[in-house]
Write a structure and sequence with these properties.
The protein is mostly helical and about 280 residues long. It has a single domain (about 20-235), classed as Methane Monooxygenase Hydroxylase, Chain G, domain 1. The chain is about 70% helix and about 0% strand. The longest helix has about 35 residues, at about 90-125. The chain is flat, with a radius of gyration of 35 Å.
């Protein structure tokens, strides 16, 4: 027998258990979340188009897709828990699975908001309202673009793009505030006018919440790539530095003294009477 046949191969060095398996499982989870996110973003796009074009048929199609996203959200969460229970991930693997769990939940809520916009679109059509305030039209254009940026950042683990998405959320918030002001100005004493303006603001509020969810997902992606939690970072940076306080010099305790009792006045003695 040749000696070479008794020597172990160089590629048989010990490896961490389940190294290849957990990587494969995480790739599958990522693919599932990406597919769900693409569906939710497609719903937002279709809902915005239905809102701008007053298209009831497209709005009802959005509503019909919501149950699919709900089922996928539950299935992905169960798969994440299964992988965590079987492989006990740590370090990068643990961060990635926990991030996927959070993103999965946020994506499902995006689909819920798309459904909400579609329902309000049908109500607007029933009221016969045509035309939309400019801030709402701009929200319907910018929020889907923000969603596509989120998909790109997820697909490439792009932390720089994720930080850009976080910064864009402030402008989305400002548009929602402008919409509120315009809706108040458009209201008249007519019942349908009040109902229509409330519905218009509700649509803007739904889109603003989608922008918040895109910001949340972007922050999770930053955590995944860097391990740094950046939530509330802007608030922390905006806080003024604490004012230093002067140290208090301790005083030496003094021994308390008893109060002096007042002296009673003395009455002169009366001499005895003489006989």
């Amino acid at each position: 027998m040749e000696a070479s046949g008794l020597m172990p191969s160089n590629d048989q060095s010990p490896r961490p258990p389940h190294e290849g398996t957990i990587a494969r499982e995480i790739r599958l989870l990522r693919d599932m979340v990406m597919a769900e996110a693409a569906t939710a973003v497609g719903m937002i796009e279709q809902a915005c188009e239905a809102l701008v074009n007053h298209d009831d048929v497209s709005a009802r199609a959005v509503i019909a897709r919501d149950d699919e996203v709900d089922r996928n959200e539950v299935r992905i969460e169960e798969e994440c828990f299964r992988v965590m229970a079987l492989f006990h991930p740590y370090a990068r693997d643990f961060r990635e699975i926990t991030t996927l769990i959070k993103v999965n939940s946020d994506v499902e809520r995006v689909a819920d908001h798309a459904t909400g916009i579609a329902k309000q679109t049908i109500k607007l059509s029933a009221l016969g309202m045509r035309g939309l305030p400019t801030p709402l039209v701009e929200l319907a254009q910018r929020v889907p673009l923000m969603c596509h940026g989120m998909l790109s950042a997820m697909n490439t683990d792009d932390a720089v793009l994720a930080r850009e998405l976080v910064a864009k959320d402030k402008f989305i918030d400002s548009l929602e505030k402008k919409l509120f002001e315009e809706c108040v100005a458009l209201m008249t004493n007519d019942r349908n006018s009040k109902a229509g303006c409330l519905i218009l603001h509700r649509c803007g509020r739904e889109l603003e919440r989608v922008g918040d969810l895109m910001k949340n997902i972007a922050e999770d992606l930053i955590y995944l790539s860097s391990g740094t939690i950046v939530r509330h970072e802007a608030k922390r940076d905006a806080q003024p530095p604490a004012t230093p306080t002067m140290p208090v010099t301790p005083t030496t305790p003094t021994t308390p003294t008893m109060p002096t009792m007042p002296t009673m006045p003395t009455t002169p003695a009366t001499p005895p009477p003489t006989a």
